């Protein structure tokens, strides 16, 4: 296998699940972190397939899209379903977690401050508790996991970006949801991940 | 195999790729179309896993998320990659097409008309041509397909919702992009799809 190069910014957010899965599987990779606010990103952005990160480079080909990359690495490290129906369960909750992220992104990246505030209000008041209550129920039913009652890449996907979600929300979202927090605890208690969390670059989200 | 029930509204949009894949594979299914504006949806919405459609029901279990369902059916009808790397190529472009959809959704479903217009402007002016030029290049390189130079479920995913994208944009988006239009022609020229397009319920998008 040729070396894998993962390019993102120096944050966890959308690439951390990929990094953690690679560490979980003991797969070597180049953990490239571009400076988001410097000339590095200005020069790199037009070279990326759709002007976005993260990207995965393997065999000389650069591929974008964090969820697609996460699924691809999950197959390598065998944290996928045992059949197509199980993979559907994982894919479905991953896309739902990604929808949840999209709710925050719908206001967070709006430049106009008054529009941003107008959009943010209903998200935090109605949408967030709606999703979190359902996530809490699902993670309870699945014993501290998001799907199949066991560890899958859906857990990694959530754990990798849970701090990013809190950052966009401007608060700790998971305080009142012990079973969602258990997903984080479960992933962080895996020895390879524990080591990674202790040694990875320290970033806010 | 127990009967598949696909529930959505009486539009193509996010479910049409799934319907077309089922028709392509000759798989029987219940094509349930809930009345979006009547009491039917008011009663159905709270019963859906995350209050959204489409959902797939199989073996008595209801699963949401259109992309996840489309991928699941694509595996059944063998319009997926031949290996994990090929599946990554398909997944990556599907998520990019879905991002493109999200750009329209970012303003289309905002209730406040002035906010809606303020958000819509930059999307139509900058974001849309950026994506369409890249899609045109990709579909040219792939001989009228979105990935792997051959028919895959990525084509179905795009074709199923291309009218929905035009509806949200308020115009024909693909007039100046012959290779993108070729994807639609290629899918619509498949005999099983041709029959389906002629006999399916007529809807605006």
Topology:
Two copies of one chain form a homodimer.
Chain A: E1 4-9, H1 16-24, E2 29-34, H2 39-44, E3 55-58, E4 61-64, H3 66-76, H4 84-108, H5 113-141, H6 153-169, H7 178-188, H8 191-199
Parallel strand pairs in A: 1-2
Antiparallel strand pairs in A: 1-3, 3-4
Notable characteristics:
glutathione transferase activity (chains A, B), homodimer, Glutaredoxin, glutathione peroxidase activity (chains A, B), Glutathione S-transferase Yfyf (Class Pi), Chain A, domain 2, transferase (chains A, B), GST_superfamily (chains A, B), globular, glutathione transferase (chains A, B), 4 strands, 205 residues, 2 domains, alpha+beta
Structure commentary:
2 copies of one chain form a homodimer. The first copy, chain A, has a 4-stranded mixed sheet. Chain A has 2 domains: about 80 residues, Glutaredoxin (3-Layer(aba) Sandwich); about 100 residues, Glutathione S-transferase Yfyf (Class Pi), Chain A, domain 2 (Up-down Bundle). In chain A, about 35% of the residues are buried. The longest helix of chain A is centred in the middle third of the chain and has 29 residues. Chain A is built from 8 helices and 4 strands, in the order E-H-E-H-E-E-H-H-H-H-H-H. The first copy, chain A, is α+β, with helices and mostly antiparallel strands and about 200 residues long. Chains A and B meet through helix 3, helix 4 and helix 5 of A and helix 3, helix 4 and helix 5 of B. Chains A, B: It is an enzyme of class 2 (transferase). Chains A, B: Belongs to the GST superfamily. Sigma family. Chains A, B: It catalyses: RX + glutathione = an S-substituted glutathione + a halide anion + H(+). Chains A, B: Keywords: Transferase. Chains A, B: Homodimer.
